[in-house]
Amino acid sequence: MAAPTTPPPAQLPPALADAVRDDASLRRFLHGLPGVDQVGVEQRAAGLGTRSIKKASKMWAIDTAISMVDLTTLEGADTPGKVRSLAAKARRPDPDHPDVPRVAAVCVYPDMVGTAVEELRGTDIDIASVATAFPSGRSSLKVKLEDTAYAVDAGATEIDMVIDRGAFLSGRYGQVFDEIAQVKHACGDAHLKVILETGELATYDNVRRASWLALLAGGDFIKTSTGKVSPAATLPVTHVMLQAVRDWHTQTGELRGVKPAGGIRTTKDAIKYLVAVHEVAGPQWLTPTLFRFGASTLLNDLLMQRRTQLAGHYSGPDYVTVD
Predict the structure, then answer these.
(1) Domains of the chain by range and CATH?
(2) Hey, which residues does 318 pair with through a beta bridge?
(3) Interacting residues of 293 by C-beta distance below 8 A, sequence separation 6+
(4) Residues involved in catalysis
(5) pLDDT of res. 192
(6) 69: alpha, beta or left, given left = phi > 0 and alpha = psi -120 to 50?
(7) Could you tell me which residues are beta bridge partners of residue 108?
(8) How does residue 317 score in pLDDT terms, banded at 50, 70 and 90?
(9) Which of 21, 34, 182, 239 has its CA 20 to 30 A from that of 111?
(10) Once rounded to an integer, what is the mean pLDDT over residues 124-143?
(11) Cβ of 78: how many Cβ atoms within 10 Å?
C-alpha cells in the first residue's frame, strides 16, 4: 500500500498518522506493539471472573447487560416473521415487566434490514446488519462495498464487517486496512463494527495487532467473532481488546467500543465481562455506546435471573419467550 485508498476518518496524532503512511510503516507499527503476556492476561481474566456481586449490584448488572445486547439472528432459515418476533422482544424483552430496558440493537442479514426497520420505527433501538460476505469475508472488495451499501440503504444504523483473516495472517496489513477504511466510508452515518474472528488469529499478539489495525482504519467498535467459528468470545481475548481501546483513548482522546460475540449465554458469563470492562478499560465503557454483547440466547437467561432477583425464587424458561 503506497497510501490508503480511503484514509481513516479520524484526525490521527502525528505518531499514528505516520504509522499508516505506507505498508512498511504499518507493519513496523503493528509489530512494534508490546507483546501480550499470555500467562498474565489469562490469570487476570480468571481472577476478575471470580469477583462476587451483591444483590443490589446484581440487578444493576443484569439491567446494564440487557441494555447492551445486540439481539441477533443470523441463520440461513431466517424469515421476516422471525425478525418481527425478534424486534418485538427487543422493544419489550419481558412483557410482564415494562421496566426492563430495551436491548441496544437487533442484528440481521442485509435482506432482513427492511423488516427490522419497519418493526423498530420510533424506537431508539439500532438496526445492525452483517455485511462484507459475512461470515467468511471471502469476496471481492467491490462486492463487500455493495453489500455494505445495500444494508445502509435499507436502513441499517450499524454495520458489522469481517476482516480478511487470510490477508491479515499473510501479513498483508495494508490490504486489510484499506478494506476497513473503504467500508467505513461506505457506511456513511452508520457505525462500523469490525469483526476480527479472534478464534482464527491464533495468538494474543495477533489479536492486539488486528485490534489496532481496525482502530487505525476507522472502526467504531472492534468485535471478537462472527459466532460461526469456535472458539468465539473469550475473557482473555476480550481483555486484550479492551486494553487496545483504552490505549487508543489515551493516545487520541477518542472512545471506541468492544463487542464480544458468540458463546456468551448466561448471566454469570455476562457479569464477568462487565467486571472486565470496568477493571481493564474503565467505568466509562459501561454503556451500550461503547460495549455490546452479540447474543441470541443470553437475553433469556438475563430475564430469568432478573425475575429470580425480584421474586426471591428461581423463575424457569417458561416465563420468557422462545426466540
Answers:
(1) 14-319 (3.20.20.70)
(2) none
(3) 65, 68, 69, 70, 259, 260, 261, 264, 270, 273
(4) 160, 223, 259
(5) 98
(6) beta
(7) 129
(8) low
(9) 182
(10) 96
(11) 16
In single-letter form, the type of residue at position 105 comes to A
HSE value, Cβ hemisphere, 13 Å, CA-based, for 35 = 4
| C-alpha cell at position 8 | 481513516
Chain segment 5-54, per-residue pLDDT in tens: 455 556 788 889 899 988 999 999 999 999 999 999 999 999 988 887 77
- State whether the Cα torsion 93-157-155-261 is positive or negative: negative
Give the pLDDT of residue 318: 55
Closest by alpha carbon to 269, among 290, 242, 299?
299
Question: Which pTM value belongs to this model?
Answer: 0.93
Q: Cell 437475553 identifies what position?
A: 299
Residue type, 235: L
